[in-house]
Structure formats: C-alpha cells, structure tokens
Amino acid sequence: MLRIALVFWFIVLSLPWVLAQNPPREEIDIEDFIERLFPVQDDDLDFESIYEVLFQLYQNPIAINQASAEVLAASYLLAPDQINNLIAYRENNGPLISLYELQAVPGFDLNTIQRILPFLSISAGLNTQTQPLWKRIVTEDQAYLLFRHRRVWEKRRGFTPADTSSTGKVSSRYLGDPNDLYLRFRIQHPRDFSIGITLDKDPGEQFKWETKSARYGFNFLSFHLVKYYIGKWKTIALGDFQAQFGQGLVFGAGYGLGKGAETVPTVRKSSVGILPYTAALEFGFFRGTGITYQSGKWQASLIASFAPRDGRIAAERDTLENEDLTISSFNQSGLHRTESELSTKNQFREFSLGGNVQFAPNSKLQVGTNYLFTRFDHPWVKTPTPYNQFDFAGKQNSVASLYLNYNWKNFFFFGESAQSASGGTGTILGLVSSLSRQIDFSLLWRKYSRDFHSFYANAFAEATRPANEQGVYLGVEIKPISKWKINAYYDFFKFPWLRYRVYAPSVGYEWLGRITFSPNRSLSAFFQIREEQKDRNLADSGEPALTYQVKPVNKVNGTLSFQYQVNKAFFIRSRILFSRINFNEKKSTGFLMFQDAQYQFGKSRITGRIALFDTDDYDSRLYAYENNVLWTFSIPPYFGQGMRYYVVAQHQLTPQLTAYFRFAKTNYTDRESISSGLQTIEGSAQTETTFMLRYMLHP
After folding, report:
1. Cα 147–Cα 150–Cα 156 angle in degrees, nearest 5
2. Which InterPro entries match (predicted)?
C-alpha cells in the first residue's frame, strides 16, 4: 500500500512532465562515454568501429517497458541490482508511463538517470504506423547528408616528385592528393528501417572512377538497407552489416570494451544481433544478407556474405603449365595510396555462411549457439615465422560455439565456449554482481588455445585476437559514500606460445585504480593509475649463437583530472598525465598537461585545448581524447617534446544546415622532421584542419 501511495504522489507531482512521457532527448556525451567505457587507449584498438556500434544503441533506444535483463545490461550503464530493481518495479507496478518515473525505482539516483536517458524510450517502438514504408522513409526526421574534408597542410614526402636512385629505380610516391574526403547519407527510424551509404577517400588515394580497381570516385563504398519487424521477421539486412551474439568468440561486431575505467559491466558482452555497418573501415563486416526470425521464445538468424578482401597474392608454379595462387598476407589498413598498396585491393573473395539460434524461456535465461563457415577463393599461406606456425592456414575455416547468460538475484552469469575446424578451442566464463548497493564486482576467466581460429571474434582478451592466451580478470566498483567512487581491476594473463616480438612463452599482468570525487553535477575530479607488465624480445645481438632473449616491459600511466561546469555556457577541464617505462634496465618517462575550455552561445559552440608534452621516446607516449567534429574520432598519441593546440567550432546556419570546423597544430621542439617514409614532413610543425557540413533533409 505504501508503494502504491508513493507511485500515486510521484505521478501527481510529475504530471506536467509525465504527459510528455519522454524527456527532451540529449545528445550523448561522447568524451565521457569514451573515457568511462572504452578500453585503456592503445594503438591496436578500433575506436571508430566500437563507437559506431555504440551509436547504433543511441539511435535505437531501449524500450524500457519491454527490455529484458540481457538488453538492459547491453547499455553498460546499469549495475545488476539496478536492473533487477527495474524489472521488479515493472512487475509490481506495471509499465512505466514516463521516463521520469525512473526516480521512483530503488537504486536509481539522478546521476544514473541522467546517463542512461539518451539510450531509453518509453514506447516499444514497434512498427505500428499506418503509412506505407516509402512514405515513412521520405518523411522521416532522422535523414541527413554529411560531408567532411580533412587535410594536413605541410607536404609529406609522398606528395613530392619522385626521385631516381643510383641504380635507376624510381622511388614510390602517392597516386592521389592529400585531401581526406568522407560522404555519408543516412535515413533511419528506430526499430523500423535504416538506409545508409558511406563513401571514403583517404589522403594519398586517387579520386578516380575505375571499375577494374573498384574505385568509384571515392576509394571505399559501403551501403546497407535494414528493415526491422515485419511480422515475425525481426531484422532483414541487405548490404554491409555486423553481428554480435554471445561473448564474441564467433560474432564480435567490434563491440568489445574490455578493460577500462568502468571496471565491472564492460567485461560482459550482450547479444545485440544483426546491426547495419556504417563505419569507413574496410574490413571486419559482412556483405550480403542477414536475417533474424523470432517466434515466441525462440530466435534464429542466418548470415550469408560474399565480400572482396585486400591482400597480397603469391604465385607458386608446381609444373611448367600450372601456377597456384595463394594469399600471402591480408591488408587491413584500407589504404591504397601507392601502386603497391593499390595492387592489394580486392585481390580475393571471402564467402561466409553462418547463423545463430537463441532460446530465452524467460527474462533471466538466454541460451544460444553460433556457427560460421568461411571460405577464401585462394588458400592463405603465411610466410613461416617462429611465432605464427599455429595461425590459420588453408582455404576454409569453420567455428561453432554454445553460450549462456543467466540472471540469479544480483548475479549475472555468462559464458561461451567455441571450437574451430583446427580443433582449437576458446572459452569464457564470468559473472557480474552487485554484492551490495555500494559494491559491484566482476570476475572473468578465459582460455584460448594457440590454434583457435575465428575471423570475426572480438572477445575479452589482452591480445588483439582471442588465441594463445589464458587469464583471470577481477574488477570492483565501490561507492563508500554518495560523492566518492572507487574503481579497480587486476588482470593476470599468460601466453603459452610465442607471439609477435616475443619469441618465448610469457606471462604478464595489468591493474588499474581510479578514485572519483563528484560533489555535485558541476564538479568532478579523479586520479587514476595503471600498471602493465608484458614480455618483449631484446634487440638482436647479431651473434648467431644467441637466440632471442625476452625481458619484461613495465609501464605505469597516471592521470589527474579536474573539470568544472562554471555555468550553463562555460566548461573547463585541467588534466595531467604521466608515464614511466622500464625495459631491460632502461627507463623512460613521459609527461602531458593540457587545459580545455568550452563555451556555448546561441546556436554556436567553441571548444579549445592547449597541451604541453615531453616524453623520452615512443614507448613512453601518452594518449588523450581530443574533441573533433561530429562523429569523428581523434585519440592521438603525444610523444617527443612540444606543444599542441586545437579549436573546434560548431554553428547551426539554418534549421537544416550545421557547419563544423576544426584547426589543430603541433609544434615540436625536439626534431626537424616528423614521421618517416612517405609520411615524412620536413619541418617541426604539423597543421591539420577538418571541415564538415551536416544537412538534415527535414527541418
């Protein structure tokens, strides 16, 4: 009776807002999302792809009255006890009639509600409209055309005239100009349809129409057409798409967060299903058809893909008449700037056929199985090295898995086990739990054999792919009092076989600690420290009698941050980062300090940064997220000595047209040239600009 009375008075007092059901939908705070959810920044991470999948969640908000525990966990924004409290609240009081009613759910404080609001919807969003599809498409508000231009203004060596060596060989140069061009068209309605085209040309690539090399002006073309909810057909995707089921051992979809400052929920993946592919990366997606059929508690998906891939083809002559072609290497850079790089474009075909079957008898249990068969039109034969002899070789591969997610009280159990055609296996087992309202906890164990092969896997791992690794991860989040939060994790891992640049079995560990103080919504400060230790080969001594020796590399990174929302228009952030590297008794250090400011007035917003950095070498480099134009990523490494600054301006010219401009410059004090090879700039400064226009088709 008391709960009913509380709900009644909450609804009465909130009536003006309740009638609106959904609060005004705010844009997601990209920087906060990146720093809190994304893994510790590194060169190997595909941030753009991860962001694109996250953005799909934003574009298709969760229907809060229908979402299961699995779907709610996919947002990475709710603790297990909050998910259980929300489901219990729905069962006891019926569907929520407004997102503002979240304030009545036990465990939902204002900070939690503010963070999750952009990803929630009060309606189911099902296709209940009476208009024909083509009318919904032409009248949809979420329809835009986006054009972006980027350029580095100092001339790189690749754009200078070619020279001739003493042997008469003409040196390589870029075929195209230094402009980076990007064009995107997108029209979509959540849980109804999505149509998109993405075109991309990298600096140095030719803007050329040539069907032979699959260049249609731009170097890369991606497209998709996705329709949701046609009867029991949950998803029908044509063109480029991704898939994620289970813990990512078969279908990973680039949505692997793993280790980061958010130490508890991000270790677990959710089965978000088939998603349109909208990034400009030229690998890691399917091209063909993906469909999902749902009937009651069962769901089945089928994936068929036939996609061109970049790589080098080698010819092996077995007789005077016969010549066998093999794939010697994949090119995943997506760059086709020189004749050599262009010769790798679309050199072979990849056929993929797979599927998923999933059974969810209730909102707390989900069981599923995955299968994926992949065949290349030529066998893949790598150049043998000491570390790659258990890597995939051949013309075809298959991988299958079983997975399970189960929610019992405040415990979320999850696991997946897979086996590839080679006999290699991969297994993940873990749990996420709220031990109390103050303590959340996660535990993950993984074991991937050295001959486990899965091309679209993106599971929790220290290495870039789940193979040749064993490890245990422990994460904890403690909120001792309302204004303080402590996050920490420890990850121990070992590699039973050799790895790239590590020619011996090795072990390592990584831990992170972060303490955050947020006395109010305007002020926030944190201190974070992270240590990682892994082995690496010593430099070759040149003595044939000595084999490669390995030694541990110890890295320590720290961050001290302070940010303050002075008023509604003005925001400042100060941050200090440092690093220390110790390898074979040689120590190096790095230091970075920057000041950010943002001012918003009318229909305009200006953001700026000035940074000073000083690192001994590339190993001690430091990463920091930089603001950029809309939907563009920038997390550059800072290394060497110098100063970097940038300004980003945004202005809404008309209700339909918004312009963005970014100017960034780095001045080095420790060098007379920047980068190497064809990327070399003769000089100590690098200037970059980015200009973007977004045109909404409907005001």
Report:
1. 150
2. RuvA_2-like
